[in-house]
Amino acid sequence: MCGIVGYIGPRVAQEFLLEGLSRLEYRGYDSAGVATIGPGCDFEVFREVGRIKRLAQLVHEHPSRSGIGIGHTRWATHGAPTVQNAHPHRSANGELILAHNGVIENYDEIKNRLLKLGYQFASETDTEVIANLIEECLKQRKRCFPHDSERAVGLEAIKDAIGQLRGTYGLVVMFREWPDAIFAARLGSPLVVGVGEGEHFVASDASPLVGYTDRIVYLADHQVAMITADSLEVSHRDHGLVDHDIHELQLDANSVDLNGFEHYMLKEIFEQPSALRNTLRGRLNDDDATAVLGGLNMTPSQLRSIKRIVFTACGTSWHSSLVGEYMLEEIAQIPVEVEYASELRYRNSPMWDNTLVFAITQSGETADTLAALREMKRKGHRTLAICNVIGSSIAQEAEGGIYLHAGPEIGVASTKAYTSQCLALAMLALHFGRLRHLSYADGRAMIEQIRAVPDAVQQALSSNDTVKRIAAKFKDCQNFLYLGRHYNFPTALEGALKLKEISYIHAEGYPAAEMKHGPIALVDRNTPSVFVMPKGFIYDKVMSNLEEIKARGGPVIAIAAEGDRRIEKMTEDVIFIPHVSEFLQPIVSIIPLQLLAYHIAVMRGCDVDKPRNLAKSVTVE
Ligand code: AGP
């Protein structure tokens, strides 16, 4: 949702800005713009509705050699997706220009104040309010210190202004008076600074930096940066200068390019074996028969004292949390609750002492998940995260956790993050189990089963052709049911979510036995039921549920274990997957469902990487 880029240095800024914005396209947007500072310190601003390609065309008609600029992709919140509302926004008297991610809750009140002071507004956005507020703060500062022309005045004006804002912001600002500096500020919306040789890059996540620099600074909330080509100063909004650590960025071009695949989603589906290996790397200890999760930042006795776990998340991450609930309760015998973050943040549910809260998130930026984490932290609970994006807001605010190391996930539909989350949760279950009743022998057995997962996923991917055939057969259906039980009930939910978000087909996931309590009324010749039924203790029960559907004339697609001859007699549309232990089945059984959603969406002509109305990370409530 919205993306920011900025550049200062010897390169042609427009080139980096456009490439950076293309790398951020996956976040979801409906308009885009870039601004540079040209000769005579004039702002050169180009904004377009629609895709970056259109903006690039406009920019190429008016090329600029400027070495300083900012750019933005906007996902409309305040005001329709129009050129006037697109960022960057100039302040009323043209003193500065800025781009903003986030939402300003008290913008109306500030706008009224500024209107009374004579400020004019050209857009309906909350962002333009920030631009005019900074201009007003600059004016007041200059009134008090008329001879001060240092760019630190600009920095202080920004600090004065953001001190009055309520809401979230990632901001990049350029002043007409200081054409050799970019200013950046963040609160609840990520910003990173790439450090190069005689140049700096700014972005709302690390992907635009790949190939330009591997040195990165993650700004924290309330930090403000003053950036020139060869200097970077970070200060706290209310205090003075703060130290900033430079981290190594561990991404290469392959991780952000399509690499020959038609879509990021397909690339990411096929990357799952290697993503899973990265999630496991260095975390299985045969000697102690446990998982090594040092990032939890808790001693064994602290972990032993935990009486209850709460997983909080949204969307696909909520589904992996459900898988985690089944795992932790069965393997480690710890009571687990799974809470939608959007509900938990306001629900005020009674929380016991010794409750450990995990926020589970791919992006680490989901507003509801961040808010739920903060609320739990405020109540005094220990808060950890299972997160993919390094340095993200949730990763920074949690007191520890597990990084997935699945690599950048660009397709809006989450795939590899989901399976990596499930695998991280399996390791968490092993770790907790071994602190409690799980024997050395059981721990060793679990390690072997966990190690086998990446190869099993690789094998499951070979079902691609069969899935494609089945997709062609059912692509025109308007409704799908997804059914599974026990560990594969979350798989059914996740399979249905994948289909609906990228193909716009109505799909519902249920525990298979719940069908007879209502949804079975939906079954007819045109409503396929996708049964997730690998071998396990519940198999016979699921088979009975399948017979109930068949008896009512509903077509059945089955995800079943290799060698299952019984299922072949029930339907010709079977997708076989390799057998793994039951607690690991969700990681393997979701593969054909991801592929099914992908192929159906492509066959229906949908834009799978940028589905309508959706954004990759949902940074608004
Ligand atoms: C998944 O395919 C969705 N696009 C969405 O449900 C997503 O999982 C959800 O918004 C949570 O995102 P997060 O994992 O980055 O917090």
Give the DSSP E fraction (strand runs of 2 or more residues): 15-25%
Can you list the strand order of the major beta sheet?
3-2-4-1-10-9-11-14
Mean pLDDT comes to 94
Secondary structure class reads: alpha/beta
Morphology call:
globular
End-to-end C-alpha gap: 12 Å
Poorly predicted ranges: none
Radius of gyration: 26 Å
Q: Spell out which ligands are present.
A: 2-deoxy-2-amino glucitol-6-phosphate
Helix content: 25-40%
Strand tally:
26
Work out the helix count: 21
The biggest sheet amounts to: 8 strands, antiparallel
Q: Please, could you describe this protein's structure?
A:
The protein is an alpha/beta fold. Helix content is 37%, strand content 21%. The protein has an 8-stranded antiparallel sheet with strand order 3-2-4-1-10-9-11-14, with helices on one face. Strands 5-6-7-8-12-13 form a 6-stranded antiparallel sheet, with helices on one face. Helix 3 crosses helix 4. The longest helix has 20 residues. It is globular. Bound molecules: 2-deoxy-2-amino glucitol-6-phosphate. The site of 2-deoxy-2-amino glucitol-6-phosphate has 15 residues, from helix 10.
What would you say about this model in short?
It contains 21 helices and 26 strands. The strands form five sheets. Strands 3-2-4-1-10-9-11-14 form an eight-stranded antiparallel beta sheet, covered by helices on one side.
